[in-house]
Every structure is written in structure tokens, then in C-alpha cells.
């Protein structure tokens, strides 16, 4: 079985108890903390910044933090997130004037790099930077808000990116974000994804008073992944 990683998106967490929420999903078996950064400019929403990332590290979170920058321009904020404890920093190619330079900046900050592709963004941005990537993130919804429905055409795009990665020979993770749930994660994995962002599917599962609700949904996601081919 592939090395599948589950990355709960804290966009759907209870922000009044964020440290506790993150600790609980990690204890329930999640692998990565997915961090959605929106600027009310590149996307029509405003979310969180480096101070929240730093606060989670101070709280004691040691798991990888996957910072998805939905901001334009991106270069100014990258050093701040690196200093705050980011592990991965991913950005949209449309938000950078010089993609190669932005990737180099991320690595200079000793973070792992990634490019993010919206549903209608072409993949040609990958042509000359595969050797500089640690992750490729495909959006299976249009970015800006949680709780959206998975766009089915993302599966064919996943297969195309998986082929590119395999042909490149580089150890690049292939992440999917948007509408990932228990009932579709197996098909998404079969199309080539190995890292799965899930927000509302995890944080909205079960009843808030149930201490095992995150364990139950993450176990269900794992069970589906175990059957992926």
C-alpha cells in the first residue's frame, strides 16, 4: 500500500479550541496539519496568518504543518511562515511573478516546496520545476471556502500529475484538497493521490460531545485507503 497521509484542514476546526482540536485529530491518527491561508484578494475570504502557526508550535504540535498560501503576492509572507514553524509551503503559480524564484525562497528558508493547481489551472507550470518540488497540490474545489463538493474532473487531472511524477523519478507527494470524504477517498487514491486534505469531513464528523469522533472518521478513511488500487 502507498504511504498515504491524512491532513485535516484546520479551516473547519473550532477556532475557540484550536490547539486542543489539532492535538485531538493528531492523536486520532492524522499525519499532517493543513493550514489554509487566505487574503481576501487572491481568494474571496480571509483566514489565518503566521501567528496562528507559531501558536500551534508553542502549544506543542510537532507534526508537519502544511501551509497552503492562497495569497497574492506570496514572497513577502514566506519567511514569516518559515519562522513560525511551517514544514511545507505551497503556493499558486498565478500568485507569483517568478515561480522558480519563489520555490528557491521557500527552500532557502529550509521548508519543503509545493505548487497548487486550481481546477482550471493548466499543468504546464510544472514543465521546468519538477526538480524543485516536494509536493504538488491539486484543488478539487475552487479555493476560498470549506465544505464544497468534490469536482469529479479532478480525478483525470490527478492521473495526469501522477504520471508526470512517476516519469520524473522525483519523490514528490501528490496532495488533493476539496470535498474529500469517506465515500470518495478510495477513488481519489486510485487516481494517484497519496496525501489527503479533509476539513469538514473530519471536524464535522459525529457529535461534538463524542470524544472518539475523530478516531472513528479517520479510521474509516484509513479503511477505504487500504482498499485502494
Task: List the topology elements.
Elements: E1 5-8, H1 18-27, E2 33-38, H2 50-59, E3 65-70, H3 78-84, E4 88-91, H4 99-108, E5 112-117, E6 135-139, H5 154-168, E7 173-177, H6 185-190, E8 195-198, H7 200-203, H8 213-226
Helix pairs in contact: 2-3
Q: What's the name of the CATH homologous superfamily?
A: Aldolase class I
CATH class: Alpha Beta
The largest beta-sheet arranges its strands as: 1-8-7-6-5-4-3-2
Radius of gyration over alpha carbons?
Answer: 16 Å
3D shape: globular
Mean pLDDT: 94
Secondary structure tally, helices: 8
Q: Enter the CATH topology name.
A: TIM Barrel
Domain module count: 1
Please tag this protein with its features.
229 residues, TIM Barrel, eight-stranded parallel β-sheet, 8 helices, 8 strands, 17% strand
Q: How would you summarize what this structure contains?
A:
This protein has helices at residues 18-27, 50-59, 78-84, 99-108, 154-168, 185-190, 200-203, 213-226, and strands at residues 5-8, 33-38, 65-70, 88-91, 112-117, 135-139, 173-177, 195-198. It is an alpha/beta fold and 229 residues long. Helix 4 links the parallel strand 4 (88-91) and strand 5.
What does this structure look like?
The protein has 229 residues and is α/β, with parallel strands linked by helices. It has one domain: TIM Barrel. The protein is 33% helix and 17% strand. The protein has an eight-stranded parallel β-sheet with strand order 1-8-7-6-5-4-3-2. Strand 7, helix 6 and strand 8 form a beta-alpha-beta unit. Helix 2 runs parallel beside helix 3. The longest helix has 15 residues. The protein is globular and about 50 Å long.
Amino acid at each position: 500500500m502507498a504511504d498515504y497521509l491524512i491532513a485535516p484542514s484546520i479551516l473547519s476546526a473550532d477556532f475557540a479550541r484550536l490547539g486542543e482540536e489539532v492535538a485531538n485529530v493528531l492523536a486520532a491518527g492524522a499525519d499532517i496539519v493543513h493550514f489554509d491561508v487566505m487574503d481576501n484578494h487572491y481568494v474571496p475570504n480571509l483566514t489565518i496568518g503566521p501567528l496562528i502557526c507559531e501558536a500551534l508550535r508553542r502549544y506543542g504540535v510537532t507534526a508537519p504543518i502544511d501551509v497552503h498560501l492562497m495569497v497574492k503576492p506570496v514572497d513577502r509572507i514566506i519567511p514569516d511562515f518559515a519562522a513560525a514553524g511551517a514544514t511545507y509551503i505551497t503556493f499558486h503559480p498565478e500568485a507569483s511573478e517568478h515561480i522558480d524564484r519563489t520555490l528557491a525562497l521557500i527552500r532557502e528558508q529550509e521548508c519543503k516546496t509545493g505548487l497548487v493547481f486550481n481546477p482550471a489551472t493548466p499543468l504546464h507550470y510544472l514543465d521546468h520545476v519538477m526538480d524543485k518540488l516536494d509536493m504538488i497540490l491539486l484543488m478539487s474545489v475552487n479555493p476560498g471556502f470549506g465544505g464544497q463538493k468534490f469536482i469529479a474532473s479532478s480525478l483525470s487531472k490527478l492521473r495526469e500529475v501522477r504520471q508526470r511524477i512517476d516519469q520524473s523519478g522525483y519523490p514528490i507527494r501528490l496532495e488533493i484538497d476539496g470535498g474529500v470524504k469517506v465515500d470518495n477517498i478510495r477513488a481519489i487514491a486510485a487516481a494517484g493521490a497519496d496525501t489527503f486534505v479533509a476539513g469538514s469531513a473530519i471536524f464535522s464528523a459525529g457529535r461534538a460531545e463524542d470524544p472518539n469522533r475523530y478516531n472513528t472518521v479517520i479510521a474509516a478513511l484509513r479503511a477505504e485507503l487500504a482498499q485502494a488500487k
